[in-house]
Design brief:
alpha+beta; Alpha-Beta Plaits; 4-stranded antiparallel sheet; 31% helix; 2 domains; Ribosomal Protein S5, domain 2
Length: 203
């Protein structure tokens, strides 16, 4: 799954959930937008607290636009019967910066590996169907250090090129971390470097 050359990527911007039942077993899928592995861990802990009696908390996630940061986990289900079908659905929708965690309550009947694959795949697909998928610009992260007097000019450039402000520290000497759209990178950096008393570094 190679997405590195694109200027845009697909993701979700709010959580979604769906439920699926098979022979008494209940599968609840939770889809979340995430930016980092820490975001994912936070959601997993939250669901384990919400569903302490569930037998399994299986998941998959993919992060970043190069497609290289992903993980699957069957959490005690037979190998390959939970995490991989979840990831397969993420990839079929071509989304990234997304995790789907599926909580399973066992209903007494064994579903077998094909039954489990079908259940995890179906409930993930349902969750992604009810969660709007959006297109976002691929951004390159930069740090801008500047004198406070340059603030307005810098903010005007960032706004003009639809940059995202990730964080800002405002003292006499200021630092803004920003995401610059990949397809506007050359012109944004040119405009920033035209300004006096500022330093721009890739992060």
């Amino acid at each position: 799954m190679i997405m590195a050359e694109k200027d845009f990527y697909l993701t979700i911007d709010k959580p979604g959930t769906a439920e699926y039942k098979d022979r008494g077993s209940k599968f609840i899928a939770y889809a979340y937008p995430i930016e980092s592995v820490d975001d994912f861990k936070k959601y997993l802990q939250q669901l384990k607290k919400e569903h302490p009696k569930a037998e399994h908390h299986c998941f998959a996630y993919r992060i970043g636009t190069d497609g290289n940061t992903f993980r699957v986990n069957d959490d005690g289900e037979p190998s390959g019967s939970a995490g991989k079908p979840i990831l397969g659905q993420l990839d079929s929708k071509e989304v990234t910066n997304v995790t789907v965690i599926v909580v399973r309550y066992f209903g007494g009947a064994l579903l077998g590996v094909p039954g489990l694959i079908n259940s995890y795949k179906t409930v993930t697909a349902l969750a992604l169907q009810v969660t709007p998928i959006i297109q976002k610009q691929v951004e390159v992260k930069y740090s801008i250090q500047f004198d406070y007097t340059r603030m307005n000019e810098i903010m005007m450039v960032l706004k003009q090129y639809s940059c995202t402000v990730i964080s800002q520290e405002m003292q006499l000497f200021c630092v803004i971390k920003t995401g610059i759209p990949k397809n506007r990178l050359t012109e944004t950096l040119y405009q920033l470097k035209e300004l006096q008393n500022i330093e721009v570094h890739k992060i």
